[in-house]
Amino acid sequence: MDRKELEQQVIELVAMAYGKDVAEVNLDTSFADDLGGASIQMVGLVSEIENELDVLVQLQVAAACKTVAELVDKVEEQL
Amino acid sequence: MSVLDQIYAKAKANPQKVAFPEAENEKMMAAAYQAGKEGYILPILVGDKEKILALAAERGYDAGVFTVVDIHEEGYLSELVAKYTALPDARLKEKALRRRMQDPLYYAMVMQAVEEADVTFAGIDNTTGDVLLAGQYIIGLQEGLSTVSSIGLCDIPGFEGSEGSLLAIGDSAVCTNPNPNQLADIAIAACNTVQSLLDWEPRCALVCYSTLGSGQGELIDKVVEAVKIAQEKRPDLAIDGEFQFDAAINPAVAAKKVKRESKVAGRANVVIWPDLNVGNVGVKLIQQFGHADAYGPMLQGFKKVVCDCSRGAPVSEIVGNIVISAVRAAGMKK
Fold first, then answer.
1. Scanning every residue of chain B, which has its alpha carbon at the shortest distance from the alpha carbon of A50?
2. Has residue B334 got a pLDDT over 80?
3. How far apart are CA A44 and CA B90, in angstroms?
């Protein structure tokens, strides 16, 4: 999977976990400022990444990401 | 009969299946054995069966008290995986689930999720964070809630409240600085907890330094907003505020300060603090000046009872917490 495909997959998973439209999420989307979800949504996101990409990103690692782009970096490191 | 004696009697009348993923731990095994032998629970030890049985024999326990589940046994593992992944709200698919179930904590919670166990009890070898995380992954939160929190039950000598000497308080342990939504969740979950554990009709007060607008400021705004959210989410529950602590629990003070109808003012049996600073100081004041026994913290907000015990707790305290968890689990089935 190339970087572009991975970015798109993660954006889709973020949108699903936070109940947003895919068009509302991009690489610069901030978890705190734009999504503002509870930790339970981040748990859902990490689970979906594990299910769909077969990559285990620890919750505390994902929770430390400020933007979607940073999360993509973390997923890429585990691939 | 003390509140704890009543809870012990309830547990004995309807023993629940409690899964222990830290079964090899000496204190945990001792507590599971004691609670099982006395008939309060049906203990299920989850882990490496051979090792657990060897340790039980070495420690002089009658293995007949326990059911031992071997996490390496493929048949039962497959059965659990199939049942769990068929649940409509299962977060993890088979591959991810199997990976996590190598950890007895996750294994035990999967057993609980598919009703092979009623409670998961851990917290000595795993941190509170580990237990909360596994609970969120596998058990999930109650419908409409997005916050894990805790309450404690205080038995305060000389206090004559609406439930005698008892008062439930929360959150004094988990949520540091809850926002209005989280505070509303804590109040709703606390009502559910006291209903399941004590059969109370909850009357829940959200407290701060103002009673119905007597003070102003952002610390109060948060509580006012939380009351509104909680009442909208669960109009069936008696949740009210914002009240000062005395207006919440003392009918004479409430009569002076609360000039409108309230099912809660002056008669609250559940008090929700605005943040963890207040919660921690509050519970210490009750213990130090009120000479209260405080039971808990009990985790709440999960769909089923997930229990985290203090690492430093003696076996007797762990047994008490196991029994409380079991009674909550039985209450949640009603």
1. B96
2. no
3. 10
